[in-house]
Amino acid sequence: MCAHSVTALHTGTTAALSPGPSCLEDDFGFALGVISRAHAKALDAAVSDIPGGARGHFVLAAAVRGEACSQRSLGERLGVDRTVMTYLLNDLEQADLVERCTDPGDRRSWRIHATARGRQRWEELCGQAEAAERQVLSVLSEEDRPVFRSLLCALAGALTRQEPE
Amino acid sequence: MCAHSVTALHTGTTAALSPGPSCLEDDFGFALGVISRAHAKALDAAVSDIPGGARGHFVLAAAVRGEACSQRSLGERLGVDRTVMTYLLNDLEQADLVERCTDPGDRRSWRIHATARGRQRWEELCGQAEAAERQVLSVLSEEDRPVFRSLLCALAGALTRQEPE
DNA sequence: TATTGTTATACTCTATAACTATA
DNA sequence: TATAGTTATAGAGTATAACAATA
To answer: In angstroms, rounded to a whole number, what is the distance separating the alpha carbons of residues B156 and B153?
Structure first.
């Protein structure tokens, strides 16, 4: 359960060359870009019938979980401008995947709920999204995969919790 | 050296809810997006004086290492269209950071070399880029950070090696 | 007065198509 | 004939500004 292949590998690297990593893929930001693009490509193909592609899929996922309290907060979490959120939600609503419900606490804002069709579509998409994830992670060893995934989500969670301050 | 905090944490999650992760930050793609945006924001601020921002910084990094054999191959590695590479390299060349040198083996293509100023600028930027990386990773525990980084780079390296085929 | 959301508009960024020169 | 790079142009995507409704 211990001794992850890369854990052993990483001890004592990046010390030989003077400044920075030894090859482009060892640059943190570049590596992040490679993985993001690979996953975005796979996910976009998997959810291509959803308006807004991967982005629409995330909105749907938030709506299904009841985490879409307002267009603004959801947009900030997704890194999407509030004006873009309007168009995106128009498309998702027109596709009968989500609906805008009045917020009794604040009549300026919308709560985004998933429709019955949206819920069903989302459950179907989950399998495909997981396949896209597996495709990207498949190059890691079987023991490294869950470690990487956990750290990734822990980091994202911490960053999200930190940002609002 | 073992017993990573998250390694322990992850055993036995994501089994409670029927399909998919329990909150948006537990979605692989979403987590990837959160981290990418956070890092891109920090890096773009750190290298804002480089033409093309973070993207220009990666080109410069490749040029310094002698990894920029042609605009096309570099563009593919960076996920940038070849027509966009032309404009980007024009700007970097005009800023006296890189230069296009003829490839003796193929007179159609350019080899991108860093200028003396480009090399110097890159060494200065390395510290700032590392600061941006540290800023993002700071929310992880000190023992988790190198593990995550190593897995990230291993994954990126494997994906890059896999793509050309 | 500040905030949520909408709309129209302007802008940036990216890709398509056509071209030159090499292979 | 295919490929690397360039250029002009069209298109997609995004943000800015002004507005209405609500807090």
So the answer is: 5
Residue of A nearest to B5 (CA): A151
> Identity (one letter) of the amino acid at A62?
A
pTM, two decimals, is: 0.89
Q: Interior CA angle at A104 toward A98 and A108, to 5°? A: 75
- Which positions in chain A touch B121 (Cβ < 8 Å)? none
* Per-position pLDDT tens, chain B of length 165: 233 344 434 433 333 344 566 789 899 999 999 999 999 999 999 999 999 999 999 999 999 999 999 999 999 999 999 999 999 999 999 999 999 999 999 999 999 999 999 999 999 999 999 999 999 999 999 999 999 999 999 999 999 988 753
Q: For residue B55, which nucleotide's C1' is closest to its Cα? A: C13
Q: From the CB of residue B84, how many other CB atoms can be counted at a distance below 10 Å?
A: 14
> Which one, of B59, B62, B30, B57, lies nearest residue B46 by Cα?
B57
Q: Which of B37, B132, B49 lies closest to A20, judged by CA?
A: B132
